[in-house]
Amino acid sequence: MPSSTAPYIGRFAPSPSGPLHMGSLVAAMASYLDAKVHQGTWLLRIEDLDYDRNVDGADAAILASLQRCGMAWDGEATWQSRRLPLYQAALQRLQGDGLVYACGCSRKEIHDSQLQAGAARNGAAVYPGTCRHGLAPGKEARGLRLRVPEGAAAVYGFVDRWHGALRQDLASEVGDFIVLRGDGYWAYQLAVVVDDGEQGITQVVRGMDLLDSTPRQLYLQDVLGLPHPGYLHVPVVNNALGEKLSKQTGALAFDTGTSAAGLLASALLPAARFLGLDVQAGSIDDFWRRAIPAWGRRLSERA
Question: Any known ligand binding at 105?
C-alpha cells in the first residue's frame, strides 16, 4: 500500500495517437480512483514523443474526453515534447557514467542472432550485446543503448499492488536497451523515468501491457539517482480477437456523439465493471461518489 506519510502523486499519461478508447478509459479510471482513494494528486501528461504516430488534435480530444467523464486533473497538463532538455540532461549523465553506447543492429539482426543461438523467443528479442565493445566496421549507429548490469545486480524485483511480488533478470530477459532511437526520438523508457522523477510521482497505475518494462525503469531510476515509485498494473481490455484494444487494432473513441447519460451507461459503468467494481449510479457525479470507495474495497480484497 502507498505510504501513509508521503503525499500521493499519481498520473495518467496517454499518447495522442488517437482518441481515448475503452482500454485507455480503464487505465485512466484506475489511476484516477487510486489517487482519489488515497487523497492524492492526479496529474495528466501527454506522451507525444513518437511524432510519427501523433494525430493532430488528439491531445485536445483526450483532455475533452476526460472532462466529459468528470475526471479533473490537478494543475496544468504537461506535454513531453516541451520537456526535451530534461531527457538530454539525463542522457548526458548516463554518458558521463559510461553506461551508454552506440548500436548499429537492426531488429532483424537481433532476431537472427537469437535464432542462431537457439534462444527461445517470448515477446521482444533479447539484445545479445553485439555492439557493447564498439560498432563493427561499416556499421552506422541506429540508436543509443544503456548497459544493464550482470549477475545478481541484473535481477530486479518489485511488489506490484495488483499482481504481487515479481522479478526479472535484465541481462538474460532484456539485454541492453534503447534510450535514444535511431530516428532521433527519445525512447519511452528514458522519458517516462525522467518525467516521473521530475514530477515527483509516487504511485504509477497503468495497464498490464507495461508490466514487463517496470524492471528497466527501476534500473534507470537507480542509475539516474531517482526514487522508485510504487506500481499497480491493471488488466488490459482485449478486442474480439483477443488482441489488446488499441488504436493499432482499430479501437474507436468511447464517447463519440454520446450524451452524459449515454456516457455513463456505455463507458463509465462498463469500465468500472471491468475493474471489478460493483457500482450503480444515476449520474456521472453519483458514479464517482460511489466508485471511489468501491475502488478502496477492491484494493482491500487484493491486499
Answer: yes
CA atoms of 8 and 151, how far apart (whole Å): 34
**Which residues, 6+ apart, have CB-to-CB distance to 18 below 8 Å?**
55, 58, 247, 251, 253
36 is in an annotated binding site: no
Which H or E run includes 9? strand 9-12
- What fold, for 85-180? Glutamyl-tRNA Synthetase; domain 3 (3.90.800)
219 marked as binding residue: no
Rounded Cα distance between 22 and 238, Å, is 10
pLDDT above 70 covers a percentage of the chain that reads 89
Q: Confirm whether residue 69 is marked as ligand binding.
A: no
CATH superfamily membership of 9-82+199-301: HUPs (3.40.50.620)
**Quick one: average pLDDT of 145-152?**
97
Question: Residue 168's closest CA among 209, 214, 99?
Answer: 214
